[in-house]
Write a structure and sequence with these properties.
Helix content of chain A: 25-40%
Largest sheet of chain A: 7 strands, parallel
Number of domains of chain A: 2
Number of helices of chain A: 10
Number of strands of chain A: 15
CATH class of the largest domain in chain A: Alpha Beta
Oligomer: homodimer
Shape of chain A: elongated
Largest interface: A-B, 42 and 46 residues
Chain lengths: 258, 258
DNA sequence: ATATTTCTTGCAAAATATTCCAAAATGTTT
DNA sequence: AAACATTTTGGAATATTTTGCAAGAAATAT
């Protein structure tokens, strides 16, 4: 097989899995590890991927988690359903804040057709729209928090205190009747700024987050207007939330396209 | 079979498979490898396909990836050499501003070992460092300029007016004795802010940029401390620049660990 | 700390490209 | 149809590129 064809296959493979070990690629392409090594070196120069110890990873990953990780695919269909349902709550040409985090990312993916103006501190969201050109995307400044691809720090907070938005699409680590909490303390201050900047606040939780309390409390339920979750959300808690005057949207299980 | 008909079959075959090896084509058309070789040579000069080691490839692949700023393969080896040479000018633990643009991107790729603090408005640079903790990366805010993955606008300018850096690694569209110019007017204001924010200003140009003048003037040479280019830079202009007191670094053609 | 895996580098073997030439095929003229 | 000129083809000898391997260096894991 010719080098260029092989390199294209490597790039394609990586576009699907985001990270691949050399051995994996060598087995798949039926060439030696040395050859794969040379190929990914060439591809790195071209800029499509980045060489890592043990393999190669995509430079602009479409999501912030490795797609091959089994743990992620677990909640994937739920998050996609939530993404579709939440996107329907958002009208065309609105200004919408997108929080960092996988669930909010799935909402963003469904927003393309609404010609929105998006404001975010999430690198994956930015990458998604940088490629498509169907939305105006404002990225907050900040320092990159390595594992998550989130922008944090004073620059990020400041960006959100200076703007106003129609909607904020948020996600967090847990929700109880006492309020919403998140596991990453660094994000709390930014999320606060997001909530204050938006006229309407939507929180997205996959159903495993219900009744869970993470380390850092984020805000009380009085700051939230709408909650979107999947079909697995505990009925009783949903009822209580509605009793508090919150709109709770449950995404339907069936998927049309996938 | 006549040559013309055979060449048409080759082109058709390639339109289906995108890549084809010589042996494959020879078998399919029942002619010798030599003949196929001559045919694809003819087709290449006609422009329908591109010849490569082992076979041929469609010149215009149907599903070519979206063109992102970092994927520009023009003057690739030169830019990589410039990247290596320029990285050597930067000390460990420095605060470095990296301009958006392919040449500056190649500098960034060589900076990881220096434990730098990087400040940039380039999404490709951010993506490159997104998964490492060997560099602290600060991304300016701003709205994404779609094709290039650059952050522009007031947020971006403001981010650079508020910070200070040891070095700024810049790139631009052209350099003459009158000064430096760039083709994207949107970037001028940001680049100005970068230059003001840095104690030392390094400009990287591949040699094709010498003597070229782009539409928007950016700054005079008095704001520049160092210029890095490749071995193709015109001697006379280099001498003149040195006469003006500028440090001019010419990257060596072969890659050696100097 | 040591042990293991992965990376680099240099080299020989294999695969592919280039150039040239004679045989075969095609076209032209008598 | 025969003789000749022209083009095309297949193949051989020689460069060039690519590939796989192995030993030492570097990075990561234990």
């Amino acid at each position: 097989m010719q080098p260029e064809a092989r390199q294209k296959r490597i790039q394609d493979h990586l576009n699907r899995v985001e990270f691949a070990s050399l051995e994996e690629l060598a087995r798949e392409l039926e060439v030696s590890v040395s050859t794969v090594r040379r190929d990914i070196a060439a591809l790195e120069s071209a800029g499509g991927l980045r060489r890592m110890h043990g393999g190669a990873r995509l430079v602009n990953p479409p999501s912030d988690e490795f797609a091959f990780s089994a743990r992620d695919t677990h909640q994937l269909t739920e998050k996609e359903a939530i993404g579709r349902a939440c996107a329907e709550l958002i009208g065309p040409n609105q200004t919408v804040i997108i929080d960092a985090g996988t669930t909010a990312y799935h909402v963003a993916k469904n927003l393309e057709s609404k010609m929105p103006q998006i404001i975010t501190n999430s690198l994956p969201v930015a990458n998604f729209f940088a490629a498509t050109n169907r939305a105006e995307l404002i990225l907050s400044g900040g320092v990159i928090y390595p594992r998550l691809g989130v922008l944090v720090g004073p620059l990020a907070v400041e960006a959100f205190t200076k703007i106003h938005a129609d909607v904020a699409v948020m996600s967090a680590g847990g929700i109880t009747l006492d309020g919403i909490s998140n596991s990453h303390g660094l994000l709390i201050e930014i999320q606060w700024a997001m909530i204050r900047a938006a006229k309407k606040v939507i929180f997205c939780f996959d159903s495993t987050k219900f009744g869970r309390r993470s380390v850092s409390p984020l805000c009380g339920l009085e700051h939230v207007h709408t909650i979107v979750s999947d079909w697995g959300a505990p009925e009783e808690l949903v009822r209580s939330l509605r009793g508090r005057g919150l709109e709770v949207v449950i995404a339907p299980q069936e998927s049309d396209g996938s």
